[in-house]
Amino acid sequence: MPGKHMAGTSDEPCRRCKDNVSVLVVRSEPLCHDCFARYVHTKCIKRLESFRVNFGAEQQRRILVPLSFGVSSTTLLHILDLHLKTQKSKTGRTGFGICAIYIQDPEQKVQAAQLLDKAREQYPDHHYASLPLHDVFRMVQDDASIRSLVPQTNETVGWSPEEHFVRMINSLTSATARADVLSTLRIRLIVEYAKSTGCESVLWGDSTTRLAQKTLAETAKGRGFSLPWQVSDGSSPFDLNFHYPLRDVLKKELVSYINMADPGLSSLVHETSSGATQASTSSKNTTIDDLMTQYFESVEENFPSIVANVVRTTSKLEARPDALSDPKCNLCSMPVPGGRFGIHGWGGDQQDGDDFESTHARRDICYGCTRSLPKATMNSCSMFNTTIAMKLSNLIVCPLLSASKCLAHWNYDRIIVNGEIIGSPYEYIRKTNNSNYPLQDVNSIYMRCNSGAESGVALTTKTYTVAAGDMLGFAVKDTFGHPGPQQIYLSRAPGPAAEYDGSGDWTKIYSLTYSLNSSYGASDGILKWATHNARTFNFKLPSETPPGDYLLRAEGLALHAAHKPDNYQFYIACAQINVVGTGVGVPGPTIKFPGGYQWNSTGVLIPEFWSRITNYTAAGPTLWPEGTMEAHVLDGTKKTGAD
C-alpha cells in the first residue's frame, strides 16, 4: 500500500539507506524520510532528461506549469524548483525557466491571489500569472470556431468573452457536460498562454492515479481516440510538447510527501471540501470524472499495481503517423480520424444521415464533444447522463481492472451461526441489486438494507432460527478492502421478518473498529484497522434479546475518502433471523434509518483522516446491552498473502 505510515514506535530500518528508522512503507518497501523524498524526486526528474542544461543555447528554454494548488501541481512546482537550484549550483545555469499559470475556474473556490503570492514568496525565481477561464474566448486565435458553439441569439453579437463563456456554460444540461467543457476550455486557454509566452512545453502535474482516471473517463465520454496525446509524453496537436513528470507517482504518495514536507509547502495546497472530484449524493450532480476519480483513489489504497498497469498500458498507444493532418474538433482541438465529426460520423445516431449532417457534422465537433454540447444541438440519444456513467463504472471499469469485480468493494452474502457458515449465498440475506457498489446518501431508505432489498427480495429470502446468546457472524463476498469500522444493528419485526421493511427502531449490538495491535491491519495515518482484509467476522447476539423475528443489519463504512463531505462509502446487508430463548431485555438506545446518521456525523465525516489520526469514534448510538465495549480484535478470518 503506497504511503502507509508506520507506528511511531517502529524500529524497522530504512531498506535503502539502512541507517535511519523507516517512517512509512512505499509499495512494500520501508523508507525513511530522506529516502522517501529522494524516491519522489527521482521518479519526477528522470522524466526530464530532455531538459538538461544546454550550454550551446543562446536563449533559455521556457516551460509552463499549470497550477491548481492541489497536491500534485504544488509538488511538481516544488520539485522543479529544487531541480533548477541543483542545476545552477553545479553548472551556474539552468536547463529551463518556469512560467506558472493558474486558471480561475468559476466552479472552484480557491483563493488564487493569496496562494499565488505565497508561491512567489517561496519560489521567487519564476514567472506567475492568473487568468479567468473566460479569457479562452479572447486568446484562442480562431475564436470563431469556439464562439460558433455558443447558443446564438440576436443579442450575442458584440458580447464580451465573459458573456460568451457564461452563456455556453449555462446552456450545458448535465454535470458531466459542464465538467467536460470546463476542462476542455481550461486546456485550450493553458495552451494559448504557453504559446503567447514562448513556452515550448507544458508540464502537467498529473499523477499515476489522475492519468488512470483520465484514461477511462475520456474513453467513457467518447474521446478515447485522443488518449495518445492526453496521457503520454511527447508532441501534442497544439504544436507544443506535453509532459507528465509525476506519471510514476501515485496520488497517495504525493499526499504523504506533502504531509512530510516543510509547512511552507503544505500551506500552498488548497484542497476544497466540495470540489469536482467528490461524488455527490445526488446522482444528477455526479460526473463520469467524479466516478473514475473516486474509484481509482480507492483502488490505489491496496492495489497500486492496478492503477499503474492502466497507465502503463495506455502509454503504449500511439497515434497514426499522419494523425495531426486530420481535421480538428472546434471545441477540444483534437484531430478527428478521417474527419468523422459528431455522433453520425461514428455511426451512433438514430436520425436520417442527411438531416443529421446538416445540423451537426458541419460544426466540426468530435464524438465526445458532441455529447457535451447543449441539448438543442443534439438528438436525445446523445445525452450522456449520470445513469450511463454509473453503468460504465460497473460494466467497463470493474471488468477491465479486476476481471470480475470492483476490487476492495464487498458484499455480505452468508450468515454464520456458532462458527458455521450457513446456507448458500443470499439464502438468508437480502440480496442487493447494485453489485458491490457503495451507498453514499445517508438520507436514502437504502440505508436500512441496501439497494433493492425491499419486499420483493425479502419475500424470497429465508429466515434462519438462532438462540439468544449465540455467536453470529457474516461471511463476505470478496474482502473488506477499505479502512473503516464494521457495525451490527438489530431491528425487531412487527411480524414475519420477510414482510418487514426496516422502518422501525434499530439498536447497535456490535462495533469493530481500529486495531490495538500495531503490526496488524491496514495503516492509514497512525490507526490500523482490525477489519482490514477480513473475510468473516463473528459477534455475540445478546442473551437479553427477546424472542421474535428480526433484521440483523451488517454495516461496513469505508473511510478512505471521508475527509470530504459526502464521500463516505456504506456497504450494507440485512439477514432475516428468528430469535428463540427467554430474553426479556429492552434494546436501546435506538435510531432509525434514514435519520440515524447525518453527512457530518461523528465517524462519518473525518476532515483530518489523512493527517495521521490517532483515534476514532464510530457513528451511531452506544452499544446494547449497556456496558458493551467496541471490539478492536477481529474474531474471524482474513485474506492472506496466498489467497
TrEMBL record:
InterPro entries: AA9_LPMO, CTU2, Rossmann-like_a/b/a_fold
Catalytic activity: [(1->4)-beta-D-glucosyl]n+m + reduced acceptor + O2 = 4-dehydro-beta-D-glucosyl-[(1->4)-beta-D-glucosyl]n-1 + [(1->4)-beta-D-glucosyl]m + acceptor + H2O
Pathway: tRNA modification; 5-methoxycarbonylmethyl-2-thiouridine-tRNA biosynthesis
Domain of life the protein comes from: Eukaryota
Locations listed in the record: Cytoplasm; Secreted
Location (main, coarse): cytoplasm
CDD domains linked to this entry: LPMO_AA9 (cd21175)
Gene Ontology annotations of biological process type: cellulose catabolic process; protein urmylation; tRNA wobble position uridine thiolation
Stated family: Belongs to the CTU2/NCS2 family.
Notes concerning its domains: Has a modular structure: an endo-beta-1,4-glucanase catalytic module at the N-terminus, a linker rich in serines and threonines, and a C-terminal carbohydrate-binding module (CBM).
Name listed for the protein in its UniProt record: Cytoplasmic tRNA 2-thiolation protein 2
